[in-house]
Design a protein that fits this description.
The complex is a heterodimer of chains A (about 140) and B (about 400). Chain A is about 5% helix and about 40% strand. Chain A is mainly β. The longest helix of chain A is centred in the N-terminal third of the chain and has 8 residues, at about 20-25. Chain A is globular. Chain B has a domain at about 10-120 and about 220-235: Peroxisomal Thiolase, Chain A, domain 1 (3-Layer(aba) Sandwich). In chain B, the strands form two sheets. Chain B has a nine-stranded mixed β-sheet with strand order 3-2-4-7-1-8-11-10-9. A two-stranded antiparallel sheet of chain B has the order 5-6. Chain B is globular and about 50 Å long. In chain B, about 30% of the residues lie in helices and about 15% in strands. The two termini of chain B are about 10 Å apart. Classes of the chains: A mainly beta (about 140), B alpha/beta (about 400). The structure holds zinc ion. Chain A: Pfam families: OB_ChsH2_C, zf-ChsH2.
Chain lengths: ~140, ~400
């Protein structure tokens, strides 16, 4: 974990999402999963968007995935973000997609389909999942 | 057998305000467009018996049109009234519901109104659509993951969609640039256009990045203004002052949430379903379309929409536009007023208003062959889509 300036607009955990943020703080990517049809739910929500069941459990995801798509932001929307930075959507091996940033990689080296793995970054009172390229063994 | 709605209604009135930094309330802008549209149709205010209302971004941020527009306009004879919002697909949808209501005998002259005024004096255009970046409160729960990743504004999802198309199909930056430059060429001939200085492909590449792969010149304008459209029964339209623009086909397609697992929202939009429905209703196919008015919040939207309407195969939108066929003099004139990229950003009213102008033959030096006009609208990160097929010829 790395300490970062707590200036970006970090989310405030709510009742529905607390296991996700608690999991991140403990170094695990926790996702909701439908008990009835096994669909992973992201974001956290009361009802499954496949079968509308309201029964769920929380399970740890693998933390592995691929870059589905990404953009390099040059517009200053918020002073805490130093442009240019990557805005990346990671498609987890389990299927759901997570908006995030890639770390430990130069913007020009990112590509669609790149294999990535989760790392966790702490921002003041909240820990967030970020992703880095899977290194060759 | 012909579809029961094919050709039963026509567009008989069009009213528009000036576009851009017009600092008036949305009710005032709407009233000006409505008064113009009613006069344009040769009607009196009391002839209006249907009102459909759509607010733009100020419908959610404050100051946008509400049902209260009825009272502001003093409409007393309404038999049909609704406030609708399916983002940029609403304009085409209003004309669709007006047509259905007319066919069902629910109303005769239906007024469809859009007004928006997100530009405030002394602020940048970007401030109008910035989203959560300016929200001082911490976002709650996992919805906050977007802002925490620096995912702001409408520019981000469209850049992400364009990037995926490029990665899957080899679409080039030049392909997007050719769309932007071609539409600016059209805008130079549109007196209502906000941006009328010609640009080159070099200017396009030199324009600053917003979020790669989108340059500034890939992104639509932000405009204050209003557009009002009147839909009437086809048999009445023949005796009204303006050349009727008949509604031959219509369709919708809504693939929904852009973030869900399994969705290919980036490259396969609801336009495909809308196209099938509309082509079948109108009895035409892509080769019959003589000009396109395509919702162009971004250059990429034009490219992917052309694919989904079957003008070329999926993934071949880039090579399809490469020969400048969308630009003046090309074989598929598209966004002939300059579109949202160069003329004015009135959500789906931008393509609809230009479709009406072309359908009437009022395009002046930018007039093109208008036998079969495709008008499309999309919104919500390519989540919603609606279309019309218009023609000056009775069905
Ligand atoms: Zn389920």
């Amino acid at each position: 974990m790395t300490e970062t300036q707590p200036t970006i607009p970090v989310p405030e955990p709510d009742e529905a999402s607390r296991p996700f943020f608690d999991g991140a703080a403990a170094g695990r990517l926790m996702l909701m999963r439908c008990i009835d049809c096994q669909t992973w739910r992201l974001p956290a929500r009361q009802h499954c968007d496949v079968c509308l069941s309201d029964r769920y459990t929380w399970e740890a995801a693998s933390g592995r995935g691929r870059v589905r798509t990404f953009g390099i932001m040059h517009q200053r929307y918020h002073p805490a973000f130093q442009v240019p930075y990557n805005v990346t959507v990671v498609e987890l091996d389990e299927g759901p997609r997570l908006p995030t940033n890639l770390v430990e990689v130069a913007n020009e080296d990112i590509y669609v389909g790149m294999s990535v793995e989760v790392v966790f970054e702490r921002y003041d009172d909240v820990t967030l999942p970020r992703f880095r390229p899977v290194r060759d063994l | 057998m012909a579809h029961p709605l094919r050709g039963v209604a026509a567009i008989t009135g069009l009213g528009m305000t000036a576009m851009g930094r017009i600092y008036r309330s949305t009710n005032e802008l709407a009233a000006e467009a409505v008064a113009t549209a009613i006069a344009d149709a040769g009607l009196r205010k009391d002839d209006i018996d249907g009102l459909l209302i759509n607010a733009g971004i100020t419908g959610t941020t404050g100051g946008g049109l509400t049902l209260g527009l009825q009272n502001y306009l003093g409409l007393k004879n309404l038999r049909l009234l609704n406030h609708m919002n399916a983002a940029g697909s609403t304009a085409a949808q209003m004309v669709q519901y007006a047509t259905m209501a007319i066919h069902a005998g629910m109303a005769t002259h239906v007024l469809c109104v859009f007004a928006d005024a997100p530009l405030k004096e002394g602020t940048s255009a970007g401030a109008a659509y910035g989203g959560a970046a300016r929200n001082p409160q911490r976002p709650k729960g996992m919805a906050g993951l977007y802002a925490a990743a620096g995912y702001f504004g409408a520019n981000t999802p469209y850049a992400l969609a364009a990037r995926r198309h490029m990665a899957l199909y080899g679409t080039k930056q030049d392909h997007l640039g050719i769309i932007a430059v071609g539409q600016r060429q059209w805008a130079t001939m549109n007196p209502l256009a906000q941006m009328r200085e010609p640009i080159t492909l070099e200017d396009y590449h030199a324009s600053r990045w917003i979020i790669e792969p989108l340059h500034l010149l890939d992104c639509c304008l932000v405009s204050n203004g209003a557009v009002a459209v009147i839909v009437s029964p086809a048999e009445r339209a023949r005796d009204m002052p303006q050349p009727p623009v008949y509604i031959h086909g219509m369709g919708q397609g809504h693939p929904g949430d852009s973030g869900r697992a399994g969705s290919e929202w980036e490259t396969e939009t609801g336009a495909r379903i809308a196209a099938e429905t509309a082509y079948r209703m109108a009895g035409v196919g892509p080769s019959d379309i003589t000009c396109c008015q395509i919702y162009d919040c971004y250059t990429y939207t034009v490219l992917v929409t052309l694919e989904d309407y079957g003008f070329c195969k999926k993934g071949e939108g880039g090579p399809f536009v490469e020969d400048w066929k969308l630009a003046p003099g090309g074989s598929l004139p598209t966004n002939t007023g300059g579109g949202e990229l160069s003329a004015y950003y009135m959500w789906g009213m931008t393509p609809l208003s230009e479709g009406i102008i072309q359908g009437r033959g009022h395009g002046g030096e930018r007039q093109v062959k208008n036998d079969v006009i495709l008008v499309t609208g999309n919104g919500g990160n390519l989540s919603y889509h609606a279309c019309l097929i218009l023609s000056p010829h009775p069905a």
